[in-house]
Write a structure and sequence with these properties.
alpha/beta, Chitobiase, domain 2, TIM Barrel, Alpha-d-glucuronidase, C-terminal Domain, 3 domains, eight-stranded parallel beta barrel, 20 helices, binds alpha-D-glucopyranuronic acid, carbohydrate metabolism, signal, GH, glycosidase, Xylan alpha-1,2-glucuronidase
Length: 669
Amino acid sequence: LAEDGYRLWLRYEPIADASLAKSYRSSIGPIEAVATSDTAKIALAELERGLEGLLGGELKRTGATLLVGTGDAKHIAKLKLDLSGLGEEGYLLTRHKKNLVIAANTDQGVLYGVFAFLRQLQTQRPLENLHVETSPKVDHRLLNHWDNLTRTVERSMAGASIFNWFDLPYYVEPYYHDYARACASVGINGTVLTNVNSNATVLRPQFLEKVAALADTFRPYGIQVYLTARFSAPVEIGGLETADPLDPAVIEWWTDKINEIYTYVPDFGGFVVKANSEGQPGPQSYGRDHAEGANLLARALAPHGGFVMWRAFVYDFEIKEDRHKQAYTEFTQLDGQFEPNVSIQTKNGAIDFMPREPFHPLFGATPETPHTLELQITQEYMGGDIHLVYLAPMWEETLEADTFARGAGSTVAKVVDGSVFGHELTAIAGVANIGNERNWTGHPMGASNWYAFGRLAWDHQLSSQEIADEWTRMTFGNAPDVVATIEEMLLESHQTVVDYSMPLGLHHIMYPGHHYGPGPWHDQGRPDWTSTYYHNASEDGIGFDRTATGSDALGQYAPEVVEKWGTPESIEDKYLLWFHHLDWDYEMKSGKTLWNELCLTYQSGVDRVAEMGQQWDSLQGSIDAQRHARVAALLKRQLEDAKFYKDACLAYFHTFSQRPYPAGVNAPE
Ligand code: GCU
């Protein structure tokens, strides 16, 4: 069990390099800390555990001391450090004369500082000139669990839900602490316990008791608990005949319910709501709009300090317009009508967590209303917990995309962190990939995405490369060949999955239902779930015309974006078929025809998976056998899946293109 991955990136294995360990030991010295609160005790215990594991034995008096605490503790106060820029959660790691210091304004900041300090050692960075001063750019950094009370998990394959509702509140699983600890180690400070598609059961008192037990467990780690709110709850569990948000009885019901929740969980964070989407009830069922629905909950939460994340993932069963356009159409017209404690929770792209999407046009389009960026950590459309895909490069692409809302540099990241429009309510959410598998995420590499989500939520300026480097060292050790090989695998893996599944801007061509394999031929009977609607392949060519001659979804972006993406020559190849319908013989930037480029891109995705397998094999003996064997087996399956994706898509598209397969492509059998 020792190497089953349970410890995630918090392994604290002894530092193998004896001279480095010695130098760490002499510069750290014994710990001086005062720990009275639960959070401070957790911080101190973590520090002791980490140092014990990494350096072993007791730290000797060498003249140096590791000073740990908040600015008002005597031993920190006398250092006269400037902690004014750190806010509630930030921390400072620094040297003061011979001593090392971990300081913050709150115990929570100290806890984050402890994890960051240990990270320095885990990644073997020098301590001589240690100076790290950081605070989060986004206030609410949440996991969204798509977990049902029955313990099934929507779109996750890493086992059942970690939340054992049956035994709560009487039995609190010890591993809840490990979950909270892992979240805190990367700065995650909130968790939504229930699925966006959940019914209202969790709002019953019998379940609120259970929620309270989880909230009590997570609180000392700085993690607030949130729930999803089923809009029809007043009818479902309240005995009312309507859930109309303007009905006085409904307003009273929600107000009482929310007051009741706060008697169980005094620091309850608020709600995520999926309304009028994919069959979920919502205000439109009563002729009201999203703002009227969101405000109902927001007003009742406001006195307690809670907030509402109202999801923009809305689309109609009957396609009135390109699904890409619907959220923008609905939400831009409501801008300015939401209560201040409402944030629109918006997926990174306008369709649905495709392997690659251009950024959602809503970012930058609602100056009066903040957005919670919703990312999907679980790999719904990218091979579940079977395929190795490091998602940070994709998230980075969204975060750095320029909306031009207030001129150049108005990136999605800056819309989300509030700086473009001066919003104070800032949030980012990641749909969790965690289950009750011993290693939490099924694929041992899946943990890199949990880790990366937290790190990027804290600081969106970190690069995906830096994060991969940290995670690899903490998870697999610092041996140079191990680090270099795994980092390369991680960093190329996202482009790889795009290439073997939905290259050049293709999207929504997966098999319906499980979303795991290819299904470009599939017709679901409703256009918005039908692959052919999205790729539009015919004898004439392939791609979705979203320019002014087509659906004009492109018109929802700023003029600078329209200019860039408006022609097949100016748009990046990676988004080409998302916005343009082109002839099979269209000449690409590479000089190849579109058909040939498409075939070669699919092939290169497959080839890259084969290479990953070889790279991983080269690490045999450098990584513990258990984790090595598991990843090796998964890579074999990923290769078979990639070939199948490529073969199925090319064989199908070939029926339209009728062009020969170019040299270098293994034609589907
Ligand atoms: C996707 C996913 C659903 C999920 C939905 C959502 O469509 O397939 O399972 O409920 O997104 O985000 O609400």
